Amino acid sequence: MFGVRPALARGIAAGALVVACSTTPAETSVLQSSDLVGGGGFDANEIVASAAMQDQATVDAAELSAFLRATPYGQASFLSTYSSHGVSAVSAMVTAAQTYALNPLLFLVRAEMDQGLVGASFYPTPSSRVEFAFGCGCAGLGGCDPAYAGFDIQVDCLAAAIRESLDAVAAHGKTDGGWGPGITAATLDGVSVTPKDDSTASLYQYTPVVAVGQAGGNWLLWNLWQKYANALGYKGPSASGAGWIGDACSASATCSYSGTAGTCATQFPGGLCTLACTGSCPSATGKAQTFCADFGAQGGFCLAVCNAADPQCRSGYTCESVKQVGDTSSSQYVCFP
């Protein structure tokens, strides 16, 4: 993992969620004029499809770096060379994507829509636009907690908030604020919305505003996502970015293991790519090791192996020792929901 401090950010994220979910819309002046020029096809009921928003693998660090060096605005973003706590902006976004099973494209979009950071050639003023980019740790006129300062911590905090909402939908059918697939609710700007999926529900939990053609709402997030995805050549989850065992998922079609079709267990936090097994599980170079875990009467299912001394399980999962199906004398530590 990179040097970002996810443990700190996760620890303080719970206290920041109320703040993060009620951030005021960014001023139009921080945006580039082209940000508010949109095309057709906007659907307030689906801002970003679930599989795309939880696609943690298709957009990599090299592509993020290239994008920031040559943005759609015809200039490099200062984020291409910026670091906080010794962690580059790109590394912070990639780490958060891997930790919370989210598309790093989401962090690029929020950085621009909230503070105009992608379009900024130089470190902007005031410094809070960068150091408290997503409002985590800031309580209105009460100022901001220094423990939250740094783009790396802000990205982690944003990702934790979105992942918490996605997990809430998976567990309860709706977010803590009542946003859920198939549930009609009104936004703060008076638009009746019925989210089609968990991703859109989570985005409205974070920013309950549509604001078509304006700054600060989910129309802008959708519009920037289209522009940035086009610049990156991103078409959605690819075969090479297919979910491996243990990865987040929204449908079984996104889970594939070296040609073997997998299963998405959507009852678990963020969805879980797995596979029924009787003893062994798929393996591949560069992918997590796997283990056929005994689920009792349900049989065996493949889970990702973890290191008990240094767990790297994603949010909603813990590193636990489980028995092997068919051989209870054998056990292994795995990321267990």
Task: Give structural notes.
A three-stranded antiparallel β-sheet has the order 9-11-10, with no helix packed on it. A two-stranded antiparallel ribbon has the order 1-2. Strands 3-4 form a two-stranded antiparallel ribbon. The chain is α+β, with helices and mostly antiparallel strands. It folds into two domains: 6-232, no CATH class; 252-336, no CATH class. It starts with 5 loop residues before the first helix and ends with a strand. A hairpin with a 5-residue loop joins β3 and β4. 30% of the residues lie in helices and 14% in strands. It has helices at 6-20, 50-53, 61-69, 89-100, 105-115, 128-131, 151-172, 198-206, 218-232, and strands at 83-84, 87-88, 185-186, 192-193, 256-257, 260-261, 263-265, 272-274, 276-277, 290-294, 300-304, 318-324, 327-336. It has nine helices and 13 strands.
Mean pLDDT: 86
Domain count: the total is: 2
Helix content: 25-40%
Count up the helices: 9
Give, in order, the helices and strands.
HHHEEHHHHEEHHEEEEEEEEE
Shape: globular
Radius of gyration (CA) equals 20 Å
State the total count of DSSP E strands: 13
Distance between the termini: 21 Å
Tell me about the biggest sheet? Answer: 3 strands, antiparallel
Q: Which structural class fits the helix and strand makeup?
A: alpha+beta
- Walk across the major sheet and give the strand order: 9-11-10
Which parts are unreliable, with pLDDT below 50 for 5 consecutive residues or more?
A: 1-28
Strand content: 5-15%
